[in-house]
Amino acid sequence: MKTYKYIIFDLDNTLLNFTKSEHYALQDLFAKYGVIFNEENFSTYKEINHELWSKLEEGTIQKAAVLETRFARFFAAQGLQVDGKKADDEYRQFLEGRNDLIDGAYELLDYLTEEGYILFAGTNGVGRTQRQRLKNAEMTHYFKELYISEEVGFEKPDVRFFDTIFTQENIKDLSKVLMIGDSLSSDIRGANRVGIDSIWLNLYSDKSVEDKPTYECLSLKKIKELMNNNNL
């Protein structure tokens, strides 16, 4: 008998290659405002964005603050005064046009579907963007339901994000639930908080210090092998 019945998938940098999509979307946005896309400017944006998303995960700011201020702050650092909300919407349009995947995504989803697992998407982000990117990737049909933080009302690792899934799907036995994701601070920490097992997709061979996953794999191919060989 298999260990798990339900699998919650993170999307960004787990199935969808957000890093690549973001890179090209930012190139297009910077060009629109006449800002050179180079390592220095990219790093400046990443620092601002990471600071705001970290505060969001900690629950100290609202998502609107992230989306409305990150580009206003970035372009201000370039000497430009822009409408942060408008710039974010423009960036999102560029992002929604992308179809970049993590290697092995289809193969893993096909395998898990054929094996009878019930799959959910459990992702932080904006509803319209995540849904469009899944549609672009022709992945929507793999999931019984999509749980996106903007629509749920809570961000991973908030236990209320996961509790929403358990309640709406009438999942009583949490030992049958597995979380798969790349983020220690949201996916793995959230799984630990609610008491479900997890697989950390560690694409960059990082070290796990505080948030310990149940399993660790360096690729989606390795996750497939883990699930198959260990009858998970």
From TrEMBL:
Q: Which Gene3D superfamilies match?
A: HAD superfamily/HAD-like, Putative phosphatase, domain 2
Q: Name one GO molecular function term.
A: 5'-nucleotidase activity
Pfam families attached to this UniProt entry: HAD_2
Its protein name is Noncanonical pyrimidine nucleotidase, YjjG family
Highest taxon of the lineage: Bacteria
Q: Which InterPro entries match?
A: HAD-like_sf (IPR036412), HAD-SF_hydro_IA (IPR006439), HAD-SF_hydro_IA_YjjG/PynA (IPR011951), HAD_2 (IPR041492), HAD_sf (IPR023214), PGP-like_dom2 (IPR023198), Pyrimidine_5'-ntase_YjjG (IPR052550)
